[in-house]
Write a structure and sequence with these properties.
With 187 residues, the protein is of the alpha/beta class. Helices cover 28% and strands 16% of the residues. A four-stranded parallel beta sheet has the order 6-5-4-7, with helices on both faces. A three-stranded antiparallel beta sheet has the order 1-2-3. Helix 4 crosses helix 5. The chain is elongated and about 60 Å long. It starts with 12 loop residues before the first strand and ends with a strand.
């Protein structure tokens, strides 16, 4: 089938301009970020009711995501932001949460979701790769290596304190094998 119009992404934050009378979690003027798995879930099937919206049996898609003047989403899909969190930073909440979730549930993580002392390689230094680098370090990685395609990505990875930044035009496979990571994240 054909895809509905709109760009799918998960880096969305903004200000509520209208909230229905039945909405209790946010109101007009509130600064929010979008939780896409909740925004696109039905909220009524058994996985949704059990707190597992990613397994929703009746997922929908939003016709428009970010980069729009306005979007309409179910109230369950927005999270109010603390006053001290900028909208520019808030748009990274969901990508960071996804990166943390992925690493905590990797086969290498301990029962508590930690990767203490491990060497981690992240292939890709876009938004998700940089978030995975931060998550790996926060969850205990001893060494984090990132493969960056572009110079601005390499600079961002270095600013975030990764141990090694590799240019993806070099012999990356050989270098990564030499570093012997215990966890590789493809981002």
């Amino acid at each position: 089938g054909s895809e509905p119009p709109g760009a799918h992404a998960h880096e969305v934050s903004g200000v509520v301009t209208f909230a229905g009378d039945d909405v209790r979690n946010v109101g007009r003027g509130d600064r929010v970020c979008l939780e896409p798995s909740l925004a696109c879930s039905c909220g009524t099937c058994s996985p949704c009711l059990a707190g597992h919206p990613l397994s929703c049996r009746s997922k929908s898609t939003l016709p428009v995501w970010g980069f729009a003047d306005a979007i309409v989403v179910p109230a369950r899909g927005v999270v109010a932001l603390p006053a001290e969190v900028d909208l520019e930073v808030a748009c990274l909440a969901e990508p960071l949460a996804s990166a943390i979730h992925g690493i905590r549930h990797s086969w290498t993580a301990s029962t508590g979701g930690r990767i203490d002392g491990m060497r981690v390689a992240v292939i890709g230094a876009g938004t998700m790769g940089l978030m995975a680098s931060l998550a790996a370090r926060r969850l205990g990685a001893a060494e984090v290596t990132v493969v960056a395609r572009h110079e601005h990505q390499a600079r961002a990875a270095a600013m975030l304190g990764v141990d090694h930044v590799l240019d993806d035009h070099a012999d990356v496979a050989r270098t990564i094998r030499r570093l012997r990571p215990q966890l590789v994240v493809e981002a």
